From TrEMBL:
It is found in: Secreted. Homodimer. Strong inhibitor of bacterial serine proteases such as subtilisin. The keyword Ribonucleoprotein does not apply. This is Probable subtilase-type protease inhibitor. Residues 1-28 form the signal peptide. SUPFAM superfamilies: Subtilisin inhibitor (SSF55399). Pfam families: SSI. HAMAP family: SSI. It comes from Streptomyces buecherae.
Length: 143
């Protein structure tokens, strides 16, 4: 066994020990943890008629954590709206002020399913027609 003497040798030995300790813990993650963010990922779809189980004519994905993304045309705005309302989808189905649509009854049903901030969500709403869907508040159901 070799004895280390002198300030420089001691500093070198300590820094090697620190590097070994740091390198050993850098790759360790808490068991069962893959992300610091709770999952927020949804599938949004629209189908003709009043039946939520009908074949969807359009569908998009919306991921909000850790950053906005997916195939939704405005993911950043949609995620912001969900965050502000606490994912209150009913609020987003109300008509925006100043919108005008015909009274033609040709229903479309929107469905939101997935996970929002770690909890399962499932929401269904039938609009009287596609104009009313597009006249709804915000951008969550505008796709």
């Amino acid at each position: 066994m070799r004895k280390i003497t002198g300030g420089l040798a001691l500093a070198a030995a300590l820094s090697i020990g620190c590097l070994a300790t740091t390198a050993g813990t850098a790759h360790a993650a808490p068991a069962g943890t893959t992300s610091l963010y709770p999952p927020s990922s949804l599938v949004l779809s629209v189908a003709p008629g009043e039946d939520a189980t009908a074949v969807a004519t359009r569908a998009v994905t919306l991921t909000c954590q850790p950053k906005a993304g997916g195939s939704h045309p405005a993911p950043t705005a949609a995620c912001a709206e969900l965050g502000v309302t606490g994912a209150d989808f009913a609020h987003m189905t109300e008509s925006a002020d100043g919108s005008f649509c015909t009274r033609e009854y040709d229903p479309v049903t929107v469905v939101a399913q997935g996970v929002w901030e770690g909890r399962n969500v499932s929401f269904t709403h039938t609009f009287g027609n596609s104009c009313l869907q597009q006249a709804a508040r915000g951008t969550v159901f505008h796709f």
